[in-house]
Design a protein that fits this description.
The chain is α+β, with helices and mostly antiparallel strands and 120 residues long. Helix content is 18%, strand content 33%. The protein has two helices and ten strands. It has a five-stranded mixed beta sheet. The protein has a three-stranded antiparallel beta sheet with strand order 1-2-3, with helices on one face. Strands 4-7 form a two-stranded antiparallel ribbon. It is elongated.
Length: 120
């Protein structure tokens, strides 16, 4: 198997080539730093993402607060995480870093607020 990727590990955006042979050995070429190689291996073996969204705020100066997963989650859990986020609302006040959902969708990862929202 051969995959072409653009590295997101640093601002250089290196063009990476990842090849996996029949025995499972992984060869990565095109990276200029260790982060590139690590990113490529992770992306083909266990891809993860940070999920960002918003949730409604009851009694706030604004009606929604931005949120994100505290850490990256397995890519195949994105839709489950988004389903749980869509069912969530919070009460004002909200502070950056407040936990909005603990253990979202059974990932072990919390969803946290990324903006302050004052009460009305």
């Amino acid at each position: 198997m051969k995959r072409e990727l653009t590295c997101i590990g640093c601002p250089l955006g290196c063009a990476l080539t990842v090849e996996i042979d029949n025995s499972g050995d992984i060869q990565v070429t095109g990276y200029t730093c260790a982060r590139g190689k690590d990113y490529a291996i992770k992306e083909v073996t266990c891809p993860t993402r940070i999920v960002t969204s918003t949730v409604p705020v009851d009694g706030g100066m604004i009606s929604r607060v931005s949120v994100k997963t505290e850490h990256d989650i397995p890519k195949d859990k994105i839709f489950d995480v988004m389903d749980e986020i869509r069912r969530t609302a919070v009460n004002a006040p909200v502070r950056i870093g407040d936990t909005v959902i603990e253990d979202c969708a059974g990932t072990g990862i919390s969803v946290i607020a990324t903006k302050n929202v004052e009460s009305v």
